[in-house]
Amino acid sequence: MRDRQHSIKLRGPHVFGIPALLAVTSGSGLISALVGDGFWDALSWFALGAPLAVIACFIGRATWGVGRRV
Amino acid sequence: MLSPQTVRTWCWVHKWSSLVSTAFLLLLCVTGLPLVFHDEISELLGKEVHVPELPADTPRVSLDRVVASATAARAGEVVKYMFWDPDKPNAVTMTLAHSVDSGPEDHHVVVVDERTARVLGQPRLQEGPLHILLKLHMDMFADLPGKLFLGFMGLLFVVAVISGIVVYGPFMRRLDFGAVRTGKSSRLKWLDLHNLLGVVTVTWALVVGFTGVINTWSEPILKFWQFNQLAEMAAPFRGKPPVTTPSSVESAVAIARTAAPGMTLSLIAFPGTKLTTNGHYAVFMRGAAPLTSRLRSPLLVNAETGELAGKRDLPWYMTALLLSQPLHFGDYGGMPLKIIWALLDLVTIFVLGSGLHLWIARSRSPIELPRSSQTAEIGLMSRASQERLS
Predict the structure, then answer these.
(1) What is the residue range of B380's domain?
(2) What's the whole-model pTM score?
(3) Chain-chain contact of B181 with A69 (C-beta, under 8 angstroms)
């Protein structure tokens, strides 16, 4: 019981870990195209494309049954 | 950790802010999708004016001749604005109307070549499918009240996104990131997809949502700027009609260029229009660097005496308004950024639709939240969240 409670508390940062990382990444992508051209534009494409890649990856996993959790 | 009561409150906020705004947000997302490619579609529809090729060192003529060409092409009308599009070198886009204070429905656009003073075209921007989409997106054909209403819906959307982040925590506590439960019920699949697609696009949704809200405030912001920063310069002209035979535009621009070296001409507002006073030309210059090229410095030139009246740095709220435009339109990073913008818009449509679906289908099969009966508190929280969202 004790262990479980402990693990529940540790889930806090875990739940928001990847979303927070993606939030910061896409935020910097929104800004980078604004402050420069060329390289900075390309950087924004990758940074803002990251959430789309994550969506594609997890929908693919769910569709093909890899790593599915019930 | 959030108390069950707090989670319940946030669930309530998420449910109602979403439900009230969803229909309008769907309208905004659906009309906004083609508008991301506004310029490309406009080109395809033949709305864009073609600028002829001339030797690179062809000198430009006096802007007074450019103005004369435009007013000759539209008898009885006056120039309100002259605009230089960085993507269309040598073309001056002018807005004319029967009076400087008439509304946008009376606006006519004339594009003139600044090297020959020849009229290149009069694109009809107030009609056609793009115009309908734009009006639906901006104000639903209801002018300022429509704009402010959509702005309020945008604020509700921002609230829905933020409360969505808060309730994402309790909903996901027993699940790995990105888990999509395809086995049990279709409702769980919809919920998981709603959570996944919603949470990874949070930053984009918040930025595009909130900059959209700021854009709906553009008219009040401009009015405030006139009363605030321009008031002092406007004082000598207060109560008088706008200067109808203003001094030379060409010399006004020459003065502005001297006062703002290294900057590029962006827009001239003629006396009496919304961007200036009754007695001044406002010459807006843009910077040369990528970021400063988004900003503008206005120089006011007295349209009776032709003298420089002052150079102002834009206050923060005008800067915020100017930066809100690219951040809302997604037109600042080439075609790949536009495509990403469109895809993120489609993701948002899915999040809105799945949220609505989850609410509509709530009675058929209640959400089975992550089972967590280890402690009474967590069990209560989950059930509470479930009830609140259903």
Answers:
(1) 4-39+134-216+342-389
(2) 0.86
(3) yes
